[in-house]
């Protein structure tokens, strides 16, 4: 127990009874002088702006500020999208039905993966008129072209062994007369996927013998020539492979593993392979405009395509799929597309589709090619029948000839 002595108690009483003190600040606060500027009042968050141009400035008739003094909003480094390239958002019963059926069979389309602007038009037709370009070998490519929005990977998933059968089943349900198949590049496969593509075409022909098949193939770089000929002789009707752009722009537009000369070689070998197999096919290629090409280079590209015996060529406008892809150099006017159509037809191409929204898989072009192939085969059948009828009948062995 703590006890206080008499002296300690007296000292404590003096401290309590003594005068009280208040501790102050170490430095004195100075009052602002009249010469110092007062801080500006804080602007209200939702207050009305009282600077800049107003509606009265535009209707007053006075001269507006020069271009250097105006405030420009948005990205002005890219050309504006012309009205003729704008398409409505795809909707409708046919569009929804095709999308649902593709998902049910685990199939992919280049229409969706490449963000094609014509998807609403192609998928929106009624039964027998709607078209979709099936993309084989999955939705992931081993290439990384600067214009393409398809996913890329060095090691995509293994091939779906049921894809050829599922593709043939879906196409037979649609009741179409013409179908387009395309595919991703699969450099990881020993044959680039040639056997898989050929198997799909064969199964389609088994389920729907009258259907015409177009295949837009990879370039099979660093693969055997037999891979190209395997696809060309599989029963398809149109062998397509795109050069995409002029030779000078190829390294900047396509994956560095894709070469202009290699693409021409693919188209040439396809014709040779089909001919060796006793089959007749058309070859087709496509060129994008608006990536920095020059007029003389387009002429040279067309000349070399004809020298490679290419039958069909299409021209379309490059449209940037995302901000991660290369920029559009320019938007080509419809009049220029019409000019290139006339030039290509004058060089001897069987058919030319040229327009801002034309793609390598183009509905109008497919309709024309379908009619050409049917007419050719009808004429060939008539000629074969006429040849057989003019041949002398063979004498049956052992038959006796009676005389008078």
UniProtKB/TrEMBL annotation:
One of its GO terms (biological process) is protein lipoylation. Coiled coil: none annotated. Binds 2 [4Fe-4S] clusters per subunit. One cluster is coordinated with 3 cysteines and an exchangeable S-adenosyl-L-methionine. It catalyses: [[Fe-S] cluster scaffold protein carrying a second [4Fe-4S](2+) cluster] + N(6)-octanoyl-L-lysyl-[protein] + 2 oxidized [2Fe-2S]-[ferredoxin] + 2 S-adenosyl-L-methionine + 4 H(+) = [[Fe-S] cluster scaffold protein] + N(6)-[(R)-dihydrolipoyl]-L-lysyl-[protein] + 4 Fe(3+) + 2 hydrogen sulfide + 2 5'-deoxyadenosine + 2 L-methionine + 2 reduced [2Fe-2S]-[ferredoxin]. Keywords: 4Fe-4S, Iron, Iron-sulfur, Metal-binding, Mitochondrion, S-adenosyl-L-methionine, Transferase. Its EC number is 2.8.1.8. Signal peptide: none annotated. InterPro entries: Aldolase_TIM, Elp3/MiaA/NifB-like_rSAM, LIAS_N, Lipoyl_synth, rSAM, rSAM_sf. GO terms for cellular component: mitochondrion. [4Fe-4S] cluster 2 binds at residues 141, 145, 148. SUPFAM superfamilies: Radical SAM enzymes. Pathway: Protein modification; protein lipoylation via endogenous pathway; protein N(6)-(lipoyl)lysine from octanoyl-[acyl-carrier-protein]: step 2/2. This is Lipoyl synthase, mitochondrial. It comes from Kwoniella pini CBS 10737. The lineage of its organism: Eukaryota, Fungi, Dikarya, Basidiomycota, Agaricomycotina.
